[in-house]
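ARCHIVE CARD
SHELF: 3
SLOT: left
DATA:
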Amino acid sequence: MTPAVDDDLYFEILKSERVRVRALAILMGSLFTVSLALMLLKHDWMPGAILIEQSVPVRTIAAFYGAAFAYELLAHTALGIVIAKRRRLPEAPRYGNAFIETSIPTCMMVLLAGAVGPEIALNAPLAMAYFLFIALSTLRMTAALSIFTGCVAAFEYAGLGLYYFGWSSTSDPYVRSVWSIFSKAGVLLIAGLVCGFVGTQIRRRLVASLATVTERNRIVGMFGQYVSPAVVDQLLTKPVESTGEVRYVTIMFLDIRGFT
């Protein structure tokens, strides 16, 4: 791969990563808006203890989603500046960003565990949010980052399970079983591996497409000024046979007096 093609590939990947950040910013902004509405509206008529501020820290959750939304906007702006100036981004900030984003569901489960109990927080649908961050890591098109995202999700969820395991007051053996926590963490780890494989395949296809475009431009640059477009298209679309091609043609030689 030539340096020019390598640069084009790198910044195309950064553009894809910026799309991922934009999607997370929209999600965090929507969650912030919903939690802010629950905090501001009088919700005495809403059924269920889950919406009662004395049970769930709605203000804290709203502030947390607001901070996450601001962080994603900052990351989106920073990526835009890097792409516009065509500067290579160090790998350390990308891994730091993956760690911070994947820790968002962990922080939310910690908040809910203190309000409604760890057995509900760790087994609620909120744990499924890890898969959202793992799936979106495919847009990074880097296997190591997707695997890292899956590892962070798996170890943080398993860590929460081990930390809160002795605090659970329920008699349900499934909820209290450490193997239930480990099995879910294992699925998160496998999801990271799968997304890393998918991202690698997408990257390979992108490399192949860029190589094809580069080769096409090279052939057009070499022959486009000397032969007809039909010949150039044939060179690009049909394989060249070693036996050649026999045709009956008419050749006319012309000379202009004094031209040479």
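SLOT: right
DATA:
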Amino acid sequence: MRSRSPGPTPFWDRQRHADRRPLLMARGRIKAAIRAHLAAQGFVEVETAALQVSPGNEAHLHAFRTELTGTDLARIPLYLHTSPEFAMKKLLAAGETRIFSFAPVWRNRERGPLHHPEFTMLEWYRAGEPVERLWQDCAEFVDLAALETGRDTLTWRGRTCAIGSAATALMTVAAAFRVEAAIDLRATFTATSTDRAALASEAERIGIRVAADDTWSDIFSRILTERVEPNLGTVRPTILHDYPVHEAALARPAPGDPAIAQRFELYCCGVELANGFAELTDPEEQRRRFESEMAEKQRVYGEAYPIDEDFLAALAHMPEASGCALGFDRLVMLATGAPRIDDVIWTPIAE
């Protein structure tokens, strides 16, 4: 009888747990520090239901589907949320003004050093405050994480990001494409259209693969992933802001330039840590964007998720607000120097 080769050591192995335990202890300290920091500013911690009518309506997000069986045995499809966003915005509509959540979230088709199917998202909202205030929040969270691990740098795969006294860098998406990829991105889109051929030509010029059925957004994402992101936050934390409106399904257009959205991302060591917006509060425009995203999802993957009508109804009552989602496990990973996200999750799913 042939014996099977041993698989990876399980997380519950005593030696492996002993090796990981300092990282997990740091995780707890970082979470406690962020909680205290937000509470001191009058934030309320909320807990949102994981089961939702819609898991989110972005074309390339993949959810876990389940069913609710009623006492009458009727079955209703539900999803594990990919973000607590819809539920938290409903709470803003209800009158909350500063809220946060350390929410377990689920995303399918994602696994690797930076991805785990179930992870923790720190999401927070400020009603009536500008999106730039969230940039400061991000910098403060990074500093808190470093303080709890006794570090003055974040590290991942040979990249180092100085923190503390080093001010956060600011860079627009257009500037990042120009500096890192030598591409004039702004010449390839307007508020209402995109020039797929122009961006494809630029991508091919710098050696980026372009498939015949790639959309402008596909090409944009590939250039961002391959040429821009690896160089962001490699000296100090970097806020990448002013995204094309076509790449911000839930964000408000920028004042004075409808082609630009008030969306930003935080990068450290070439790793995306956070994604935030000045929130769109127009339910009709939000419906149009959701329908467009789901049409693209149907085209590419042969499936689409329902639209949460209750969310759109609440959106009409939501005040102007800014919100952000930060990958808490990734922050802990960079702050501790762990090589994989699984190393800082208490009970990771076996690969």
